[in-house]
Amino acid sequence: MSNREACRIVGIDRRTGQKWRNGRHAYGNRKALPPVNAVAVPAGPSRYLREADRIHIADRLREKATVRAIAAELGRSPSTVSREIRRNRHPECEAYRPHAAQARADARRPRPKRRKIIQNAELRDAVQTMLDEKWSPEQICQALRTRFPDRPEMHVVHETVYQALYVQGRGQLRRELAGALRSGRARRRPQKQANCARQPRFTTPMVMISERPAEAEDRALPGHWEGDLITGADGKSAIGTLVERATRYVTLLHLPGDHGAEAVLTALTATVQTLPAQLMRSLTWDQGSEMARHGEFTLATDIPVYFCDPASPWQRGSNENTNGLLRQYFPKGTDLSVHTPEHLAAVADQLNRRPRKTLGWETPAERLHKLLTA
User: CA-to-CA distance for 177 and 186, rounded, in angstroms?
Assistant: First the structure.
């Protein structure tokens, strides 16, 4: 438009329009006023969009410019401009108004904010209920999305649950909430790899894991198990753990007195003989001395035993993961012999009813039932 036409639309004298258009310009003894929409732009890039950027976005949107074109003009990512329009437009008419958008952005910026779980009582109760069931934060988040698919206010990411448990600014858990995490740790710790190698506990000939059939490796068929012991205070008590590789189904061995080779042989034989035939294919164990009589176990059950390489716990990854889950029920440094067979069965049942990410959020019991009835 011409200067005359623009001044007529705005409702000002054309000489005033000339002054505004030319910016600060000496005019006699006075200086012209700057344009009403001129905003001082600091030199260099800014992390946040400024009011001048938002005015530019609004002007270009009225001109039907694309988001990518606007982003290129501002030197921003298209996703930044798209997110700005989506978050700060008017909630009812959906028009993008730059000054209102700036006010919304300014109101959203102050920290700290009240956490979503604290603000929503229904969400807080749902999270607390699942924590009482000893579900992990990731399992809780997935369950919330499944139960409330059309209610985004009930959706959180697992980090939100962790942050709700951790004391802000210190990274340390409140003592009364420390039990809500399976590790029981007061601080987050990085994953560390063990460097020390373990020596074989016995010299009886072993069949190594490298000779285990491929069907066990790819988890194609149920019936291939991984086993280990979790020990109590001073190594004086233990519980045997068995995990089925395809379904992550858990079975616990009651070892109230001794957990040597003979006691493990007796408990292990009695347990696996209660399984259906299609669930008795193989057993993978580490080189602990408790499996010194593995040959007798194979003769009694017709289940071959395969041994992991020294210092290679990842070769029994499902069992190692399960042992970590079980420590929430059976903490280190406690006497494990006090737990009855009924209590062990209840713990295993709770684990088998817990949804697992690796199973597409099915429970081990559901997956095992599907495989047995297929």
Answer: 9
Rounded to an integer, what is the distance from CA 123 to the centroid of its chain?
18
Task: Evaluate if residue 38 carries a pLDDT over 50.
Answer: no
CA separation, residue 251 to residues 131, 189, 225, 228, 271 (Å): 23, 29, 10, 11, 8
Q: Would you state the structure tokens that stand for residue 349, as one six-digit string? A: 């049942």
> Which residues lie across from 243 on neighbouring strands?
226, 250
Contact criterion met (CB below 8 Å) for 264 and 322: no
pTM, 2 dp: 0.53
Nearest by Cα to 57 from 46, 43, 44, 71: 71
Q: Please name the residue that has the structure tokens 């990842």.
A: 314
290-to-137, 209, 268 alpha-carbon distances in Å: 35, 18, 11
Q: Across the strands, what pairs with 356? A: 362
The residue among 209, 271, 207, 208 whose CA lies nearest residue 239 is 271
> pLDDT averaged over the chain?
84
Amino acid type, 237: S
Q: How many CA atoms lie within 13 A of 294 on its CB side?
A: 25
Instruction: Tell me the backbone φ, ψ of residue 126, rounded to 5 degrees.
Output: -65, -40
More confident residue, 188 or 48: 48
The confidence score (pLDDT) of residue 299 equals 92
